């Protein structure tokens, strides 16, 4: 009997443009799977992902946490 996946996830949406931002912020957005406005990604909620979200918190919005 397979157990249902209970991993925590976080859904983020890009709300800011990477234009005229430092290269590391652009690369962080790409690492999160975001590179165009209003893209939404559901990611596993890990400390690494949380750190990336905090680094570009002015460019992304956390839509949903499960």
TrEMBL record:
Q: Give all residue intervals belonging to the Large ribosomal subunit protein uL30-like ferredoxin-like fold domain.
A: 11-60
GO biological process entries: translation
State the InterPro entries in the record: Ribo_uL30_ferredoxin-like_sf (IPR036919), Ribosomal_uL30_bac-type (IPR005996), Ribosomal_uL30_ferredoxin-like (IPR016082)
Cite a GO CC annotation.
cytosolic large ribosomal subunit
Q: Which GO terms describe its molecular function?
A: structural constituent of ribosome
Keyword annotations for this protein, in alphabetical order, are: Ribonucleoprotein, Ribosomal protein
UniProt similarity note: Belongs to the universal ribosomal protein uL30 family.
Which proteins does it associate with, and in what oligomeric form? Part of the 50S ribosomal subunit.
- Please state what the protein is called: Large ribosomal subunit protein uL30
């Amino acid at each position: 009997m397979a157990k249902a996946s209970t991993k925590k996830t976080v859904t983020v949406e890009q709300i800011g443009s990477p234009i005229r931002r430092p290269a590391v912020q652009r690369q962080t957005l790409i690492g999160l799977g975001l590179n165009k406005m209003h893209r939404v990604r559901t990611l596993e909620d890990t400390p690494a992902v949380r750190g990336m979200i905090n680094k570009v918190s002015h460019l992304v919005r956390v839509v949903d946490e499960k």
